[in-house]
Task: inverse folding
């Protein structure tokens, strides 16, 4: 799933390639992608793009007609930029193409989604706060006013484990499964540690890990073409998705805890005092 750093890089890329250009066609291929109907998605046609914004993991393309084209790429969605779109309208089928946006100069982008779980979402609204997912977002962790005290206040009443708290978009916007693993590894904290139990020193470590991990990931992604962002994300991850590999800090083997639809990765030496975390799914399989 694209998270804050990749969506921030997409925002910068689209700012460079869209601003000042007119959207001449919005062509849905998969009806499931459309989450609003008034105004219709075609109402965005004729808009000249004035700005591109990011809200958490949402991209928001602003037009001079007062409308906003907002999209969330979900777990398996992506944006594919094309300097020259194919001639003729896209054909509905079994492929990954969900929607195409064409500009007056022949360029544009496709929104694609792999797999069978169709969660990619497109909204055309007058105000991004009309998108339910945007309206309930928590603060952006890279905002200038997001400091240690803000993080401590957010976590103080959280009775959940840190892993779940960091992924909750209504608590902190933009962090998902991959970067929560990276942040907790950098902070040397167990993903199962209770969020409300942090001492001031632990809160400081978590805050520094949060800001540093995301800032460095944004810096690595900035300036890259849209098609290179996925590979850059994978190459920059230290523990997430690296089960069985050596920890880059201590050399211990990266371990995994599996859930019904996801997994987390961690280093026992760096994060849990050398104690492996219980993998409930694997335990059930071994019974």
Result:
């Amino acid at each position: 799933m694209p998270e804050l750093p990749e969506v921030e890089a997409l925002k910068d890329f689209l700012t460079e390639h869209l601003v000042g250009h007119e959207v001449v066609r919005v062509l849905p291929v998969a009806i499931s992608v459309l989450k609003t109907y008034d105004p219709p998605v075609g109402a965005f046609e004729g808009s000249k793009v004035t700005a591109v914004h990011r809200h958490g993991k949402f991209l928001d393309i602003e037009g001079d007609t007062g409308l906003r084209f907002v999209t969330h790429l979900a777990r398996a969605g992506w944006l594919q930029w094309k300097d020259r779109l194919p001639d003729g309208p896209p054909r509905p089928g079994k492929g990954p193409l969900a929607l195409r946006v064409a500009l007056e100069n022949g360029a544009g982008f496709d929104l694609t989604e792999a797999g069978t779980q169709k969660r990619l979402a497109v909204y055309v609204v007058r105000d991004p706060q009309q998108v339910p997912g945007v309206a309930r977002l928590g603060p952006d962790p890279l905002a200038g006013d997001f400091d240690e005290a803000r993080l401590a206040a957010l976590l103080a009443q959280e009775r959940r484990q840190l892993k779940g708290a960091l992924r909750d978009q209504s608590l902190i916007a933009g962090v998902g499964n991959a970067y929560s693993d990276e942040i907790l590894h950098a902070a040397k904290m167990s993903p199962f540690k209770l969020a409300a139990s942090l001492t001031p020193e632990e809160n400081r470590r978590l805050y520094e890990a949060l800001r540093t991990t995301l800032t460095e990931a944004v810096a690595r992604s900035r300036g890259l073409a849209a098609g290179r962002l996925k590979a850059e994300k994978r190459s920059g991850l230290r523990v997430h998705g690296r089960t069985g590999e050596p920890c880059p800090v201590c050399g211990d083997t990266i371990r995994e805890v599996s859930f019904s639809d996801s997994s987390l990765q961690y280093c026992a030496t760096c994060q849990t005092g050398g104690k492996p975390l219980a993998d409930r799914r694997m335990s059930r399989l071994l019974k």
Strands lie at 23-28, 49-55, 58-63, 68-72, 77-82, 97-103, 108-113, 121-125, 255-258, 263-266.
